Amino acid sequence: MSERLLAVEDLQAWYGDAKVLHGLSFTLAAGEILALIGANGAGKSTLLCSICGQLSNKTGTIAFKGHPIHRLAAHEIVMRGIAMVPEGRRLFPSLTVEENLLLGGNANRKGPWSLASVYGLFPVLREKRQAPSTSLSGGQQQMVAIGRALMANPDLLLLDELSLGLAPIIIKDIYALLPRITGNGLSAILVEQDVARALAVAQRFVCLQEGHISLDGAPGAFSRDQISAAYFGM
Amino acid sequence: MIWVNSVVQGILVGGLYALFAAGLSLIFGVMRLVNIAHGDMIVGAAYLAWTIVHVTGLNPLASLVVVVPLAMVFGYGLQAGILNRTLGKDILPPLLVTFGLSVIIQNGLLALYTADNRKLDAGTLETASYPVMPGVDIGYLPMLQLLTAVAVIAGLQYIFYHSQLGRAFRATSDDAETAALMGLDRRRVFASAMALCLGVVAIAGVFLGVRASFDPAIGPGRLIFGFEAVIIGGLGNLWGTLAGGIILGVAQGIGAQLNPGAQVLAGHLTFLLVLALRPTGLFPRMSG
Amino acid sequence: MSTPVITRSTRASRMAAAVAAFAAVVLIAAPWWGSSASLRLIGEMMIYIALGSLWNLLAGYAGLVSVGQQAYVGLGVYITVMVSVLLGVHPFFAIPLAGGLAALISIPVAMLAFRLQGAYFAIGTWVVAEVFRLIAAQLGSSVGLGGGSGISIPTAMMQMIAPGKFWRDASIYWLLLLLGLGALALVYGLLRSRVGLALTAIRDSEVASASLGVDIRRIKYAVYVAAAGMTGIAGALIALQKIRVSPDAAFSVNDWTAIVIFIVVIGGIGTIEGPVIGTMIYFLLREYLADLGSTYLMILGALAIAVMLVAPQGVWGFVKQRFGLSLFPTGYRVSSLDPSADTGEDVSALPPAATTRSY
After folding, report:
1. All structural domains of chain A
2. Chunked in runs of 10, what are the mean pLDDT values of chain A (234 residues)?
3. Are C99 and C125 in contact (CB under 8 A)?
4. Touching subunits for chain C (3+ Cβ pairs under 8 A)
5. C294–B110: do the CB atoms touch at under 8 Å?
6. Chain A: which residues have CB within 8 Å of chain B?
7. What is the ipTM of this complex?
8. What CATH code is assigned to C6-354?
9. Which of A23, B38, C98, C300 has its CA 20 to 30 A from that of B159?
10. Does B231 fall in a domain?
11. In this complex, do A83 and B170 lie within 8 Å of one another by their Cβ atoms?
């Protein structure tokens, strides 16, 4: 029996005065990759931000490895083992590639990921290590963002819109590396616009529709029509 | 020769102005905060040193061993306790709170020490000098002052660009929200920056007190000198701040030669000139 | 089917207007019921109401936090001294001259200072004030204006103002009254006008107002210059009140900026009533605490810090938020469809910190 790594119960969240999440409940087992799909504005990023602690205007419970984390601040949550690759990368312009990665390791957690292993995963970054991070191409920046999150040696990796603004071939390359990233038993929640790609790599998926969970289960268990219906809320 | 001496002395005092300015530059770079009480804290450090010297009989420069750590603890507490609560999009709260602090510190010092002039006595170091050429003497103390400024700025540069703390500073300054995802608590990062700033302030205060007599009211003047050095040198560049301090010192020296009462005015006018001709400063690295 | 009624006044403001009219009559009659000392006190309060209202206009509405308004106070002071000592002309000529020259000089100052942002702008204005002070001290001695130690307006000049001490004191007092009430009227009128609407928009969001076509730069220049001019007039009147002037006093950052800032912050920044409330609080505190000397100033500083941290909208801002009161309403209120249901609430002019919901 896989232990429940993450348990979300009745999560409601607000951005300012607007309610975005209307009571979400789902679980994630250790070693699972969960695809989070849904239309724009469905609440996918809001959900990730709620889990990693960047959104505090919320009610409900979020438990990680059995302990409640919904009242913790973002800088405390990463210490517990959840790392986020934010939407749009959000690299630090004042830091070089290597400094961005080193900063990712600020949490000082033990694990397989280090500067060496990250460079092993993304060799092009080793060449560009002293370059200002924002001088890299979109795909390379995405690699830095992923590497930076991995440096925290998380147990749960949150990936928010990996393919945003990237050319298809770059997206393909990055997704090809996903098994090596999650190979050590790292769990992940993957927010992705490209539904087919997301469902191809995930063991489970959750479909959000206007802040509600419209479908939840294994990709193979549903037909395309059923998933479309859940996506568009028909 | 008089003019050469003026320039040389101006360069040397520029080191002191750079010390005034370095902390300002650091804090603005990390958290976009301008501490109106900065000059008063420099004076406060001078008074602290004076008290320690009075009680222990230590040489003022040796008292740094006590003054610097105390100042750093004060800085950490100040930021964590009060100034962190003022940070946000609005520029008014930090400005007005530090303005209030300025008034409190000035009057607190006045109440504790009276308005009498005080001075830190560094002994023979004060009068020793090296005659470089006829009419131009380089005092050991001013030279030490300049070298200390260079060392402090080099140290700050090293911390900023080659240490984990510096990475934390730069990342938090870039994007505090994302920095939190790396485990950086912005409140702690800012408090550490302020602690570092107050360490520099302590050094500046001791050198101020050794160089000339001081009283509780001279704080704002030191803030202005530091501010002018930062703007002349260019925002976001610590070595630029050193250059700015030196330029200010030289301008003041030349002004004093022209008319003894015009020393400070010459500095102000130079600052306004730079503002008019090169508003971003001489060696800028970031925008205001 | 009734249409909504748009009004610009509240019940509270109409009441306050009546009270204010009564107060104005009392104040104008003060030379007859008050002593020389009370005239001076009320006059001093008027100076701070004026300076406070102007600083509030700059910082609370136009986003220009100036720590250098003392430059124009001192300018006004010294223009008055020059007019009476060097020109031997009736001192009252100095008043419009001070206003005009201060406004004129503020233009190049603004061109320089506006190159700086935020807190750096603040210190920049301070430097300019210091330059004025130093020049006054330097030139002062060379043109016979007393230099660093200062100079007095000659008695002969003061006697030109009016025959006899009573009318002299009264004239200066009435001018100060005009200054204080005039500054309030100016600020109120400005904020009720289209410029005021633009200013409030700028205060709430520069980006948004710029995108709507508000010429932010022009408006900020205009506000800065207007404030400088009026501050210059205040300086002229200060000189007439104090008679003896010196560069340090005329350009004092403590007297003409620090206290003004405290008054506005504690009273309520971004509100018209704030500077008035703040002035009253300041003078009350001064009455009872001035004996404490430097401790009194420390209390003032601590109070400003506490207000900024706990209630940044100040005393009046708090009252306005809590009770919806507005004595100087500048906004537009939609009364309910039933014109007779006047709730007396003016929500459209709330300080930005108070609103999370925008109307």
Report:
1. 4-232 (3.40.50.300)
2. 80 91 92 91 91 93 94 94 93 95 93 93 93 92 95 95 88 90 90 88 91 89 85 79
3. no
4. A, B
5. yes
6. 52-54, 73-75, 78-79, 83-84, 86, 90, 92-95, 99, 102-104, 106-107, 148-149, 152
7. 0.91
8. 1.10.3470
9. B38
10. yes
11. no
